[in-house]
UniProtKB/TrEMBL annotation:
The keyword Magnesium applies. It comes from the Bacteria. Mg(2+) binds at residues 80, 100, 102-103. This is Inositol monophosphatase family protein. The lineage of its organism: Bacteria, Pseudomonadati, Planctomycetota, Planctomycetia, Planctomycetales. It comes from Maioricimonas rarisocia. Its cofactor is Mg(2+). One of its GO terms (molecular function) is metal ion binding. The keyword Cell membrane does not apply.
Length: 308
């Protein structure tokens, strides 16, 4: 697994974390208005939701990464939207920076909950190296999820202190005392999300379709309220945070057709949603027995996302 140079790690945990917090504040304010825009036509409401907040937040984060440390420009950039000086980052590099400016955009746009967030991660071809998520409306001042090395932190923000100082002070998740949850998040199965969630429940776990999710999967998974996810052709901007959390806690993310651990050497461009995705169906879980249950269940399901 790649290790981050100390100046890059310090920048991520300091000024970049501050920029992520600012991005959360901007999204919280923009959510009060009708900021929907068109542009995605996959036919799935969760995928096609796009707002001015997505574009604005990405512009802010790309600018921060561009300016805070020139070392960031030596990495590849994969961002969900097209805004920002993406051309200033490397075309080829060992590490990739990935951004999801507003994860959970449908919930954000429809004002139906607090499960949206600003996501950033760095990865190489095989593993996620660094993850940061900020949920602006989860809790009084927002909630952080931070993962690096063998440590995951999750907890409330405190706007009275610098973002990096807050993250540094958060307690690490203890895998020995973290609860074992059988709740599994499902998404990407198009009109069959609910049906597939029911199949997971019938297999002895507890399947949750997108409309039934009580919040963002990342803090829920970090703290043990959820055990993992089952995702059809996950995109490369948000799913890797779940993979990162699972692996640090002793689990994994695998392709159900082969059981092979997920890597990032192969992806495909979903033209309908205008985003990069991993192929096939991916199971992700902290508990290895639950992971095998998901693999056995979904092994023969259709791996083609748009199977008209």
């Amino acid at each position: 697994m790649s290790e981050l140079p100390q100046p890059i790690l310090e920048a991520l945990d300091g000024p970049i974390a501050a920029a992520v917090r600012w991005a959360g504040a901007i999204s919280r304010q923009l959510r009060r208005f009708d900021v929907s825009v068109s542009g995605k036509t996959s036919g799935n409401a969760n995928t096609d939701a796009l707002t001015l907040a997505d574009l604005t937040v990405q512009e802010l984060l790309i600018s921060a990464l561009r300016d805070v440390d020139p070392g960031f420009r030596n990495y590849r950039m994969e961002a969900e939207e097209s805004t920002g000086d993406l051309h200033l980052f490397a075309d080829q590099a060992e590490l990739t920076i990935s951004l999801d400016p507003i994860d959970g955009t449908k919930q954000f746009r429809d004002r139906t909950g607090d499960g949206y967030g600003v996501l950033l991660h760095l990865r190489d071809e095989l593993n996620v190296v660094y993850s940061l998520a900020f949920l602006p409306e989860m809790g009084e001042y927002g909630t952080w999820v931070h993962a690096y090395g063998q440590t995951i932190k999750c907890g409330p923000d405190d706007p009275g202190r610098p973002a990096g100082e807050v993250i540094a002070a958060l307690p690490a998740v203890d895998s020995a005392t973290r609860p074992h949850s059988k709740k599994i998040y499902l998404i990407g199965f198009q009109q069959r999300d609910l049906e597939r969630a029911q199949a997971v429940s019938e297999a002895g776990l507890e399947g949750y379709a997108p409309d039934d999710m009580p919040g963002s999967i990342y803090p829920l998974m970090a703290t043990g309220d959820f055990g993992g996810s089952l995702i059809h052709t996950p995109n490369v901007y948000d799913f890797p945070l779940s993979l990162h959390i699972a692996r640090i806690l002793g689990g994994d993310a695998v392709w159900v057709d082969s059981g092979r651990p997920v890597d990032f050497r192969e992806s495909w461009l979903d033209d309908r949603a205008d985003m990069l995705r991993l192929p096939g169906i991916v199971a992700c879980a902290v508990n290895r027995d639950d992971l095998q249950t998901l693999v056995d269940l979904a092994r023969d399901w259709n791996p083609i996302r748009y199977a008209e």
